């Protein structure tokens, strides 16, 4: 047993060595995530090393899982290992300690982010290549069979079968963790929901209904616990799944509008910066300092990955985009649901950081311009969008725009003054009122604009010190002010 532990420790050291050598050539997110998992999950260190060595070619620096037949098999083994870790973690957390009496640390979310690198969809690309080539159109069965045996690549049918098996194991892991969400951290649940949003449209209708039911419970639990990250990720996942091939699915989605308003209200504390979920600012591995040119360059790929996983403002924009595309969400929603959404977005644009708020202001202005029935929100009296009753209230955004005209950034002030008259006009382009063309690209420039603002700030004036006489208070003046003080 001791010899096996020593061999395992040696494998872990080899893993660290290989990761460090590879990181010197390319700063990839996958290396960092696998590196974080080695100390926590040493039991599967050999498997992680096999996954890394089989999916990363030294000459091409590929880091995607599923790049070859060997790496697809390794990806399946990694998914099975993650499922075992999740199951063992759940049993350990229920008891508080593992079988050796040690405190259970739980499943780390970095390990789940590795699954987001799975390459699903290569079967369709291979099928399109076979159809477009047409080289074997007139060949007989023997020639086709011989070429298939001599080929170094797999056929589209084999790829599709391997992808189906891999996705099956992935969804088993995802649903197991989602049902045991009370035992795992919010970062882990956010990674699970991001994976469901990416691969969820590949499942059948029965499993999709089960996923939507679990998402409904997860979103409501997150709103009750004031967890905006999990709530927004769950909403984005549900809206993306309903806007895909399952648009004709008949299910209860009346909870989406109320959950959307509640989740957006919880997102305000995280709108102080674009990189809201990061521990450091600026985010690591996203910016590189060039010593020769004395310039700072941004890595587009690393910055995009950081924004997709660690930015609540970007997540809000993704939820808004998915909600408008979803026919069962806000596509044919009532005016009351859209009015509540517009009012909440104007509130976020007013109270968020100015760099984040101007992006929200543009998106909600474009939404309000398209919905002509909601133009009464620009009146001081507002409009009543409800089903009747004493609980109805007038909804207006006039006071939000009035407060935005007093903001310090001149771009926000200029846009807020022009929006009440520009939104009802058909000939005015809302995009011309803002300095940004794309809201996501604008949010990504936060670090660059912050650093560039230092160069435009006036330099402090250094005053030269001059010699001058100073006067001191005399004894007579002190006695006149304080009087005679007796000494006891």
UniProtKB/TrEMBL annotation:
Q: Which GO terms describe its cellular component?
A: nucleolus
Give GO terms for biological process.
Answer: DNA replication initiation
Question: What InterPro entries does this protein's entry cite?
Answer: Nucleolar_cplx-assoc_3
- Give the Gene Ontology MF terms in alphabetical order: chromatin binding
State the PANTHER family in the record: NUCLEOLAR COMPLEX PROTEIN 3, NUCLEOLAR COMPLEX PROTEIN 3 HOMOLOG
Q: State what protein this is by name.
A: Uncharacterized protein
């Amino acid at each position: 047993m001791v010899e096996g532990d020593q061999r395992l420790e040696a494998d872990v050291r080899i893993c660290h060595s290989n990761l460090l050598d590879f990181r010197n050539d390319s700063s990839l997110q996958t290396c960092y995530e696998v590196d974080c998992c080695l100390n926590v999950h040493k039991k599967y260190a050999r498997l992680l090393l096999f996954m890394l060595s089989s999916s990363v070619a030294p000459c091409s620096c590929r880091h995607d899982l599923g790049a070859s037949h060997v790496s697809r098999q390794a990806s399946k083994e990694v998914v099975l290992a993650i499922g075992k870790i999740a199951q063992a973690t759940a049993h350990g957390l229920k008891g508080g300690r593992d079988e050796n009496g040690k405190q259970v640390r739980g499943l780390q979310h970095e390990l789940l982010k590795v699954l987001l690198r799975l390459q699903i969809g290569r079967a369709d690309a291979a099928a399109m290549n076979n159809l477009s080539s047409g080289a074997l159109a007139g060949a007989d069965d023997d020639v086709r069979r011989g070429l298939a045996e001599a080929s170094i690549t797999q056929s589209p049918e084999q790829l599709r079968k391997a992808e189906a098996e891999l996705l099956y194991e992935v969804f088993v892991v995802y649903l197991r963790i989602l049902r045991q969400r009370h035992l795992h951290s919010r970062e882990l649940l956010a990674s699970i929901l991001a994976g469901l949003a990416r691969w969820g449209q590949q499942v059948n209708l029965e499993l999709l209904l089960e996923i939507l039911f679990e998402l409904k419970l997860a979103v409501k639990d997150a709103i009750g616990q004031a967890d905006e990250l999990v709530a927004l990720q769950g909403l984005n996942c549900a809206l993306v799944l309903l806007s895909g091939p399952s648009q004709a699915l008949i299910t209860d989605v009346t909870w989406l509008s109320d959950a959307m308003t509640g989740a957006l209200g919880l997102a305000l504390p995280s709108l102080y910066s674009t990189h809201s979920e990061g521990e450091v600012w600026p985010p690591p591995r996203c910016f590189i300092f060039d010593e020769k040119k004395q310039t700072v360059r941004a890595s587009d790929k690393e910055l995009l990955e950081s924004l997709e996983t660690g930015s609540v403002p970007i997540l809000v924009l993704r939820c808004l985009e998915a909600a408008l595309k979803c026919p069962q969400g806000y596509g044919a929603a009532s005016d009351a649901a859209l009015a509540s959404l517009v009012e909440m977005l104007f509130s976020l644009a007013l109270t968020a950081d100015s760099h984040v708020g101007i992006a929200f202001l543009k998106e909600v202005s474009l939404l309000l311009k398209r919905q002509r029935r909601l133009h009464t929100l620009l009146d001081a009296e507002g409009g009543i969008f409800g089903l009747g009753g004493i609980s109805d209230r007038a909804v207006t955004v006039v006071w939000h725009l009035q407060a935005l005209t007093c903001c310090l950034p001149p771009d926000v002030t200029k846009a807020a003054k022009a929006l009440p008259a520009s939104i009802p006009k058909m000939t005015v382009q809302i995009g011309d009122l803002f300095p940004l063309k794309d809201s996501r690209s604008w949010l990504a420039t936060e670090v660059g604009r912050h650093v560039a603002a230092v160069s435009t700030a006036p330099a402090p004036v250094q005053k030269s010190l001059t010699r001058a006489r100073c006067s001191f208070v005399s004894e007579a003046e002190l006695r006149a002010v304080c009087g005679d003080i007796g000494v006891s």
